[in-house]
Amino acid sequence: MANVIVVGGGASGMIAAGRAAEKGHHVHLYEKNDRLGKKIYITGKGRCNITNDSDIDTHLSNIPSNPYFMYSAFYTLDSEATKQFFEKLGVSTKTERGNRVFPVSDKAGDVVRALQKYLKKNNVIVHTNTAVKNVLIENGIVKGVVLANGKEVFADKVIVCTGGLSYSGTGSTGDGYAMAKQAGHMVTKLYPSLVPLKTKQRWCQELMGLSLKNCAIVVKNAKGKVVYKDFGEMLFTHFGVSGPMILSASRHIVKDLENQNFTIEIDLKPALDEKALDNRILRDFQKYSNKDIRNALDDLLPQKMIPVMIMLCDIEQNKKVHDITKEERKKLLQNIKYLTVTVNGTTGFEEAVITCGGICVDEIEPATMESKIVKGLHFAGEVLDVDAYTGGFNLQIAFSTGYTAAESIV
Q1: Which CATH code for domain 3-190+358-407?
Q2: Contacts made by residues 59-63, CB under 8 angstroms, sequence distance 24+
Q3: How high is the pLDDT of residue 168?
Q4: Among 270, 227, 267, 268, which residue's Cα sits nearest to residue 249?
Q5: Is 196-347 in the same CATH topology as 3-190+358-407?
Q6: Which site from 23, 37, 235, 249 is most exposed, i.e. has the minimal number of CB atoms within 10 Å?
Q7: Angle at 363 (CA atoms; ends 355, 192), nearest 5 degrees
Q8: Residue 368: its pLDDT value, please?
Q9: Fold adopted by 196-347
Q10: How many angstroms separate the CA atoms of 254 and 261, rounded?
Q11: What are φ and ψ of residue 238, in 5° steps?
């Protein structure tokens, strides 16, 4: 039986502490917040997207950075096992569009309470309002931790599950990166990821709150090369664009945004090619030929977008439809198929779902999450340089790595 300290009471920390204790180890969990699972409460817009109900290959394909590192962890705890884990703890789940798995109750609090129940059932000793300053290491072997008040607490194994830098209000302030560096680990450059994007165009503000469904986007770099494509939902905001497609797109550009701007071409009618769309516009123009153009696009576009679209096409809003020129009609078609915004920044870590970057995984043993530098020191969750797209994939990484770390302790 080992004495184990888990640092951080989020998704990876709670499952790691619970599993280590379930195996018979003596476990202390240290959390600097006044309660556990603070970030879980806000995941999935407060509903908690526990995992994605798909096979391991699908999970790996949704991890743009270091997917190979996750093979062992996913085979130790995959999405099906995660669902069963929560079912046993009394959380019934349901699978929605995109194979996203949520609690039937739609309450993230139920997930947190289930994990707390798991800790209590296995006699984990939980210390809230207790920050860990650094890790105790002697001759390349972990010996425990030093608390913020200077007290040394000794242990045979330490699992660091402190999260990243996203949503710092939940306690994710990069503590684990400092601990990793202190232990001799390399931490790659950190970026906000799955984050809303700021745009150069002021007209986005006029569309604030407008949600688009079933549209398509193409993201291009400064040289015009396509770096990402997607189909689904997006949202206009007072600073630019957001929504599921945009968050996933952000992952492909955050590392280069400091050096260049990117453009996003939005196709409002992806089901129609240019010829079919032109025929559709012509039909509408025939139908509303005696109306002002501002009153003739309701069948084609959301009400909120019409004045912006007319402005972008340089058409006088009171111009009669029968007076619209072929060039103006062509401009309308082009803006519907290729509505373009220029991305010039993100809203930063405060609104980022996840952190891109972290502890270099080449220095971590993937089958155990143990440091290759310090014996007995493990890392799990967002603190590692592994991140995924939206859809439950990031929480699965947290659960799988936390569980794997605990499973390896003997």
Answers
A1: 3.50.50.60
A2: 59/388, 59/393, 59/396, 62/388, 62/389, 62/391, 62/393, 63/386, 63/387, 63/388, 63/393, 63/397
A3: 82
A4: 227
A5: no
A6: 23
A7: 10
A8: 98
A9: Helicase, Ruva Protein; domain 3 (1.10.8)
A10: 10
A11: -70, -15
Question: What is residue 31's predicted lDDT score, i.e. its pLDDT?
Answer: 98
* Residues in a beta bridge with 30: 7, 127
* CA distance readout (Å), 295 to 33, 288, 299, 305, 311: 54, 8, 10, 12, 14
Residue 330 and residue 68: Cα distance in Å, rounded? 47
What angle, rounded to 10 degrees, do the helices at 11-22 and 393-407 form? 30
The rounded Cα 271 to chain-centroid distance in angstroms is 28
| Residue % of the chain over a pLDDT of 70 | 100
Sign of CA dihedral 109, 114, 119, 120: positive
Helices (H) and strands (E) in the chain, counts: 12, 21
Cα separation, 388 vs 328, whole angstroms: 42
Residues 106, 47: Cα–Cα separation, whole Å = 5
Phi/psi of residue 270, each to 5°? -65, -20
- Residue recorded with tokens 């999450």: 369
In the chain, where are the structural domains located? 3-190+358-407, 196-347
Residue 5: phi, psi to the nearest 5?
A: -115, 130
User: CA–CA distance from 58 to each of 5, 55, 323, 339 (Å)?
Assistant: 33, 5, 52, 31
Q: Residue 104: is its pLDDT beyond 90? A: yes
Query: What pLDDT digit, counting tens, does each position of 116-160 carry?
Result: 999 999 999 999 999 999 999 999 999 999 999 999 999 999 999
Please give the Cα distance from 188 to 175 (Å, whole number). 15
Please provide residue 186's backbone torsions phi and psi, each rounded to the nearest 5 degrees: -90, 135
Rounded to an integer, the average pLDDT of 27-43 is 96
CA dist., res. 51 & res. 48, Å (int): 9
Q: Counting beta carbons within 10 angstroms of the beta carbon of residue 225, is it exposed (0 to 12), middle (13 to 18) or buried (19 or more)?
A: exposed
Mean pLDDT of 387-409: 97
Q: List, as one string, the DSSP characters of 43-104.
A: GGGGT---EE-S-HHHHHHT--S-GGGGHHHHHHS-HHHHHHHHHHTT--EEEEGGGEEEET
Residue 171, pLDDT above cutoff 90: no
Side by side, which strands form the sheet with 26-30?
125-127, 26-30, 3-7, 157-160, 377-379, 370-371, 364-365
- Does 172 have pLDDT greater than 90? no
161 contacts 13 by C-beta, under 8 angstroms: yes
* Residue 222, pLDDT score: 95
